[in-house]
Amino acid sequence: MQPLQYTLAVTLPEDETLDSFYSAGQGEVVNCVKHYLQQPAMAAPIYLFGAAGSGKSHLLYAACVQAQEQGLTSQLLALQDSDQLSPRILDNLEQLDLVCLDNIQAIAGDLSWQIAVFDLYNRMLEQGKALIIVGDEAPSALGIQLADLLSRLQACSSFQLRLLTDDDKQKLLQQKARLRGMDLPDEVARFLLNRQQRDIRALVAILDKLDKASIVHQRKLTIPFIKEILRF
């Protein structure tokens, strides 16, 4: 199955929901996750991949939030810590409604973990439960040694998440500002992007700081005000 490629941004932890994701005009991956959680027995597990900062891990978190809102049980496991854990931690997870595995590439050199994930995959499928897996590359590029696990990953509904462009980041900041009841003009948003690092978390953290300052000082978001607050 060929991966679908979409651009997604992430939100800060207090607002990590599927509905609040900025999707740069492509909401198919979010809709796919929503529909999958409603009827996991009717679809293949989901595999997400992309570069750091593309929104993979936060989309996993949002899926768990969505599951909780539906009254479902869930577990998110970060496999980058697999060298400190036993593969037995995956035992009986098929009793949960949703299991999310982050950073699948971390087990590429560990056959015991690959076998454990393969067995979990099969148990989740047999029980009609939801499984979402995240990696930094397409399945064929992960370096997975266990052929059976590789074939399972390749059978997933696969989505490649893309990094945001600067234009996307500007629109995201303006959307976040509107949700806070603020107006962020185009020139002010571009000023922030040109003066600050373009990491989404950092940009939204700055927006939070400006939101609080605008309330305290009863000022609109203008370039002079931002210079004053952020001391440019």
Give a written overview of the molecule.
A six-stranded parallel β-sheet has the order 1-6-2-5-4-3, sandwiched between helices. The protein folds into two domains: 4-162, Rossmann fold; 166-230, Helicase, Ruva Protein, domain 3, CATH 1.10.8. α1 runs parallel beside α2, α5 packs across α6 (186-195) and α5 runs parallel beside α7. With 232 residues, it is an alpha/beta fold. The protein is elongated and about 60 Å long. The chain has helices at residues 28-38, 56-69, 111-127, 147-154, 166-179, 186-195, 200-217, 223-230; strands at 4-7, 46-50, 74-78, 98-102, 130-135, 157-162. The chain has eight helices and six strands. The protein starts with a strand and ends with a helix. The longest helix is centred in the last third of the chain and has 18 residues, at 200-217. The protein is 43% helix and 13% strand. The model is unreliable at 6-13 (pLDDT under 50).
What portion of residues is helical? 40-55%
Largest sheet: 6 strands, parallel
Give the CA-based shape.
Answer: elongated
Indicate the CATH class of the largest domain. Alpha Beta
Overall pLDDT score: 88
Q: Write down the CATH topology of the largest domain.
A: Rossmann fold
| Poorly predicted regions | 6-13
Strand arrangement within the widest β-sheet reads 1-6-2-5-4-3
Q: How many domains make up the 3D coordinates?
A: 2
Straight-line distance between termini: 49 Å
Please give the oligomerization state of what you see.
single chain
Number of helices: 8
SSE series: EHEHEEHEHEHHHH
